[in-house]
User: Fold these one by one.
Assistant:
Number 1:
Amino acid sequence: MDIMEAKSKDLNDWLQRRATLRIEGRAFIDGAYRDAASGKRFDCISPIDGASLAQIAECGEADVNAAVACARRAFDRGVWRGLNPRQRKAVMLRWGALMRAHQDELALLETLDAGKPIADTTTVDVPGAAYCVEWFAEAIDKAGGEVAAADHHLVGLVTREAIGIVAAVVPWNFPLLMAAWKFAPALAAGNSVVLKPSEKSPLTAIRIAQLALESGIPAGVFNVLPGAGEAGKLLALHHDVDCLAFTGSTNVGKQIMQYAGQSNLKRVWLELGGKSPNIVLADCADLGRAAQAAASAIFYNMGEMCTAGSRLLVHRDIKDAFLDKLLVAARKYSPGNPLDPTTSMGAIVDQAQMERVLGYIDAGRDEARLLTGGARVKRESGGFYIEPTIFDVPDAQARIAREEIFGPVLSVITFDTIDEAIRIANDSEYGLAAAVWTSNLTTAHEVSRALRAGTVWVNCYDEGGDMNFPFGGYKQSGNGRDKSLHALEKYTELKSTLIRLR
Ligand code: NAD
């Protein structure tokens, strides 16, 4: 289904589709769906209306051990890693095509499960995940090694080899896309993968496992273990997992590093939280565009974005004019039923996250001036909705301006000089993304050099969403990079082979 087709569907079409949707909730291990060995299940609640969507297998130790063991068998037998790169490419291209063929089903699952607008899951999440699979499929038969400079009597080869068993533990804000950023490069490189989706949004990961098998990925090579954080912990502590690729909160990331140290020193790659500064300088050429981008930077995906532009730094001279435009831009994000294709802001992922965000809003009332929003809305739906919320924050040290809220809450901070803006921007434990708006090219370069962040946007925010740019953070936003050819480095070992000629 293309974008036009998605747009041509209305709320009733999606509600009808939902009525006949069959939802799989079991784990996928060694090429087949199974219940958790313990028989335990948990309810998958839709944030749209608080209703239960399905019962999900709650995987524990026996399931983790079974998945890792079959992943290891598949790896050792070489059923996947032993294929020519162009054969792996062909299979993964089929998988991407199957995701596209099932796009409306996957988008519907994602919207029901995570509360994301269907307008986004049909145009960003699902096609983005399929594209990621296709991109790494296309890349893998072009990647080669090196012949290194060596003594005359030697030939020195530098090659990359699959690392083995990659466990991917992922969050709920972009359930399918964040998972694809891990499993696509890991599989392209020849590894076996065990994917642990978030307990808040496991449905699409479970569904695409069947599509993987249909596309020709051999049994045991791609496994999905739904369950609570405990299943992620068991993977991180497992002695036969070679690499753990994690996207999630900084606190859990720190624990995962410790688990690796307590077990087998598996490679650990972390994509963590953020509190990204979006800096509007006095010479910004187009305040209207900057205001729209600032609103989208914090309200897109209900603010459940690791790159959310949650700290808006505005020069004092333009602050009033800018805030007028920002408040208008924020109105576009009125919360609505995410199954309605005209909705641009859906539901918060679950009750706990909604209460967490409301707790920050309450704290914000004491430390800042509320400019708009601040309330739970659509209570009668049974779902979890919060208005776009903007605070004018007098002190950049305020809690709402320092801690990651992961919801639709923006802190506006005023500055007088560029140096002050850079100091405030960098005064954070995080360093995932940042942006600067200016009409001066030299200032743009100088400020972006000074910002300690993995991605810097100039005169835009959240653009360049294709696969070519490495994505990840400085400081406590993590290590390693998703996307781009650099992602392959995470899932491969470098080997030097020195051959003596005489
Ligand atoms: P989370 O850390 O609570 O959970 C992430 C995953 O880890 C889930 O699958 C969860 O079940 C699992 N988990 C929980 N406890 C665990 C433990 N002790 N050991 C192993 N696994 C465990 O994060 P979340 O609430 O799902 O997601 C929100 C966070 O993700 C935010 O901090 C956000 O910034 C971050 N995020 C970062 C990026 C990025 O690329 N940098 C992208 C998206 C989200």
Note: The mean pLDDT is 97.
Number 2:
Amino acid sequence: MKIAFIGLGNMGGPMAANLLKAGFDLTVFDLQPESAAPLVAQGAKLAGTAAEAVAESTVVISMLPAGRHVKALYLENEEVVRALKPGTLVIDSSTIDAESAITLARELSNKDINFIDAPVSGGVAGATAGTLTFIVGGTQMQFKQAQPVLEAMGKNIFHAGDHGAGQVAKICNNMLLAVLMAGTSEALRLGMNNGLDPNVLSKIMQQSSGANWTLDKYNPCPGVMENVPSSNGYQGGFLVDLMKKDLGLAMDTAVQSNSPTPMGALAQSLYGLHSLKGNGGKDFSSIFTLFEQNDKDK
Ligand code: NAD
């Protein structure tokens, strides 16, 4: 099986590395050639264009920022459209809107190309460890076809339903994550402003009814946890602007389905404000800094 991997950023890079470790024949491409260098050193072939990567492959995986990038790649890049062979399995692991995923599945199926949406959860740490959760939207047959490839990069592989269902489930999860990250930051700040040590408070809440993933794996307060973005100047990880995009997708989905999402709407406002203040390129746990007191308030 020959695999092409397109989009080698914070997530795509380590995911592609796990495919190499599993012994797959891999060709890689990114608009920023420097992000391919570590993979080429581990044995990947470097393609000069996306079309070149796709031409030799029976499976194509993409990990791109948003729906417009994925649609541009598979529907508007004429060289890629020509290079994709009938029977190819296209796995898009980017977080995009469900409508785009459904359109891509329909347009590509007209050329006998199998497209599935397979967004992930687990962050850069999960991508590196090969323990991602994959949430797949597609037919049962396409899900089965993708499983051996996804198992090389993840631990939990879910079939959420038909095309687009993977994206809807992913958006629900990320809306909840945004709410939890903002709520955890607010609670930690409240404790610190009242004399508590954030290390001690984090341990207490981890063993109490406020326990959640952000406290267990991704504490937003600098110095509480090693090897997380908060202890590295909020560099790397999952960008504020990507969370802002996901909350926009969640709000669009809520409007279309007449679903009340007041907590999600508040999280969208907080992340929007945080981005406007110049933090769009930082990890999303930096929302913690939005709750900082000025010296005069202390
Ligand atoms: P990133 O910005 O680090 O990486 C995106 C990469 O895509 C960049 O290297 C960019 O150069 C490349 N790219 C963009 N357009 C391209 C094109 N047309 N052809 C080739 N390469 C192209 O983003 P990321 O953090 O890796 O996230 C990727 C996707 O995964 C997003 O949809 C995001 O929402 C989702 N996601 C991210 C995380 C996380 O923790 N970072 C977790 C789960 C899901």
Note: The chain has 13 helices and nine strands.
